[in-house]
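PROTEIN DATA CARD
Card holder: YceI family protein
Chain length: 190
Origin: Undibacterium baiyunense
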Amino acid sequence: MISRPLKKISASVLAITALCSSTLLLAANLNLDAGKSTVHFVFKQMEVPVQARFKKFQAQIDYNAAKPELSSAKVEIDLNSVDLPAPEYNQEVLKKEWFNAVQFAKANFVSTSMKNLGAGKLEVSGNLTIKGKTQAVRFPLQVKSEGKALSFEGNLPIKRLQFNIGEGEWKDTSMVADEVIIKFKVVTNP
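Structure generated from the sequence above:
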């Protein structure tokens, strides 16, 4: 039989443990503020820069401000939400030669490590998967406070041909350059 004081201590310990656990989860796992977050990409078509965006994406960020190297991130982009400056091209880039969005509707990034560079700067490494092809990538990331929110901003240069984006005649880089820069700003709230 458990004595009354021991029951009170056990209940108190459980309550404190539950409170601490939920506080840690709230401090680490951040919620995406979709209205303030953006994912754009820039490429050159006949040497002219073209900027487009994805209207739908999700991000899961587990950020540890005290030890950023313990942080992690996952991003999933809905390729069907592509928005080019000329709307008639939105359906074209979803075709097999480009994103093949019928077979590969999502692009994904999963971090594998984060290195603290100081002053709110991180070097992020991870795996980027587009069109069924996965490539290891690394890029700088800037972390900033915006009131109670945090923003994570960066640029990730990729080569589209490494992901088979632009097959057949579109492999020719004289029309559409191989280099694409993914520009993102992910704003989160605790």
